[in-house]
């Protein structure tokens, strides 16, 4: 009986760990050095490595204001697919974009500031 109880606890813990991992954010919050392909010459902007992104592609968001921003991914029906909160500093901010949990297709990427204003927006293909 005790062995069955121990097995149930083990299975329960495995399920909790799987659920925890599935709730992780799509965007890695580490900041990377700027590559020339991601350089933004203007005061603000949004630039991806190319016209489409794959898992772990980098992107650069450059702002004149620092703070907490929401990265919102919407499908072509304007449904929110994913939402992540990022701490962004003034100037260039390079992040990795993870796409494993998102189906291939065309999406709109919006950056919204803490006041609800759309700061940057770009249509992109996820592969």
Detailed description of the structure:
The chain has one helix at residues 2-22, and strands at residues 27-28, 45-48, 52-53, 57-63, 67-74, 80-88, 91-97, 105-112, 118-126. The chain has 127 residues and is an alpha+beta fold. It has a five-stranded mixed sheet with strand order 3-9-8-5-6, with no helix packed on it. Strands 1-7-4-2 form a four-stranded antiparallel sheet, with no helix packed on it.
Largest sheet: 5 strands, mixed
- Low-confidence runs: none
Largest sheet: spatial strand order: 3-9-8-5-6
Q: How many distinct domains?
A: 1
The end-to-end span amounts to: 50 Å
The third-level CATH topology is: Immunoglobulin-like
What fraction strand?
Answer: 35-45%
Radius of gyration computed on alpha carbons: 18 Å
- What is the 3D shape? elongated
* Mean pLDDT score: 84
Number of helices: 1
Order of helices and strands: HEEEEEEEEE
Say how many strands there are: 9
CATH superfamily: Macroglobulin (MG2) domain
- Approximate helicity band: 10-25%
CATH architectural grouping: Sandwich
SSE class = alpha+beta
CATH class: Mainly Beta
Q: Which secondary structure elements does this structure contain, and how are they paired or packed?
A:
Blueprint: H1 2-22, E1 27-28, E2 45-48, E3 52-53, E4 57-63, E5 67-74, E6 80-88, E7 91-97, E8 105-112, E9 118-126
Parallel strand pairs: 3-9
Antiparallel strand pairs: 1-7, 2-4, 4-7, 5-6, 5-8, 8-9
